[in-house]
């Protein structure tokens, strides 16, 4: 069974809060606020990765994204949960995963299911970190994504160049020849001749390719989200710089206007004083002839 193709089972047992009982399709309709079961946690994590309500989406609200998650869970798994309940539960699961408590809450399920759930929660935590307002946390998430992408590339190259397991080559015919990757054919003169045939890809190789494809898709989504956030940050910084530049220019213009007004007032004062002196002098000159005539 492919790791990516695992179907969320409804095995009996207990989750973090209460025991699992029946599969989702057989459970009665549940009221809002009822404790989450272990299989519901796994289904929620898988649906969150599918719908991606964590990363910022242009023109969309977080509440609408989480309502979409709840709607898909109701349609696919018959889970009666609200969008806010899904969001609050995921916040708690992320907190538990950061404390390394994810496995302890999934004790009764198969190893494959638990491993898949742990991987899903790790990816979800990285999603939260990639949109964190803390620059250090966001940078660490970016570094992890880069390292994961490089590792996925190396794994893909290794899977493409590795030999196919012999047991996957067993077909009808001579077991020894088939296991050796050699096919016996007849030549034109009827003599037997052997030629090497290309072995088909085995199940493990297909699973590896599926995992790599999923990792590539997720890493690309993470990368696009980080690039989008960095672009918005740059645009905001540019707007802030433009605003500061406009404020600076406005202040300089106001200062120049104030200095010009001050200089104009000074000149007007000098002109007025000069006019007053001239008028007074003219009045004195006008009185002197009258006195001389007397």
Automatic annotation (TrEMBL):
<protein>
    <recommendedName>
        <fullName>Myb-like domain-containing protein</fullName>
    </recommendedName>
</protein>
<feature type="region of interest" description="Disordered">
    <location>
        <begin position="231"/>
        <end position="265"/>
    </location>
</feature>
């Amino acid at each position: 069974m492919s790791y990516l193709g695992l179907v969320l089972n409804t095995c009996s047992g207990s989750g973090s809060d209460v025991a699992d009982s029946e599969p989702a399709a057989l459970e009665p309709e549940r009221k809002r606020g009822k404790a989450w079961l272990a299989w519901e946690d796994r289904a929620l994590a898988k649906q969150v990765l599918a719908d991606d309500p964590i990363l910022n989406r242009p023109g969309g609200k977080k509440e609408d994204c989480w309502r979409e998650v709840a709607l898909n869970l109701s349609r696919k798994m018959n889970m009666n949960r609200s969008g806010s309940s899904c969001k609050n539960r995921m916040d708690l699961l992320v907190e538990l995963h950061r404390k390394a408590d994810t496995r302890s809450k999934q004790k009764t399920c198969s190893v494959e299911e638990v491993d898949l759930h742990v991987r899903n929660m790790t990816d979800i935590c990285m999603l939260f970190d990639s949109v964190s307002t803390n620059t250090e946390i966001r940078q660490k998430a970016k570094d992890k994504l880069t390292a994961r992408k490089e590792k996925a590339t190396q794994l893909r190259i290794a899977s493409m160049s590795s030999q196919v397991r012999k047991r996957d080559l067993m077909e009808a015919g001579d077991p020894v020849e088939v296991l050796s990757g050699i096919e016996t054919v007849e030549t034109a003169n009827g003599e037997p001749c052997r030629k090497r045939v290309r072995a088909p890809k085995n199940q493990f190789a297909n699973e590896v390719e599926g995992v790599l494809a999923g990792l590539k898709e997720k890493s690309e989504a993470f990368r696009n989200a980080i690039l989008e956030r960095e672009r918005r940050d740059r645009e905001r910084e540019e707007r802030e710089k433009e605003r500061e530049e406009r404020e600076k220019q406005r202040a300089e213009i106001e200062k120049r206007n104030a200095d010009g007004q001050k200089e104009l007032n000074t000149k007007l004062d000098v002109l007025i004083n000069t006019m007053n002196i001239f008028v007074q002098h003219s009045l004195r000159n006008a009185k002197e002839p009258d006195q001389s005539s007397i």
